[in-house]
Amino acid sequence: MAHHKTTYDRWYRQQAGAPPLQWSGSIVPHKGQNAWLVEVTMNDRVVARAHCPTKDIAENECAKQLLVYFRVPHD
Hints:
The chain is α+β, with helices and mostly antiparallel strands. The chain is 36% helix and 37% strand. Strands 1-2-3 form a 3-stranded antiparallel β-sheet, with helices on one face. A hairpin with a 2-residue loop joins strand 1 (21-30) and strand 2.
């Protein structure tokens, strides 16, 4: 399930001047249940956001959005 997160982490480590990203996550109520809200910001601007049942899924979804944002080849 963490395929996109793994691809993103590998790409990020290879960057000489990696962008200053801040990851944050919190549990929020959603339709009577708890869900994870994960946001990634760069220079105080949200560049990825995911609202999912688990933290792992939310982080993976944000990583997928970052791969698209930074135009990293992926499947």
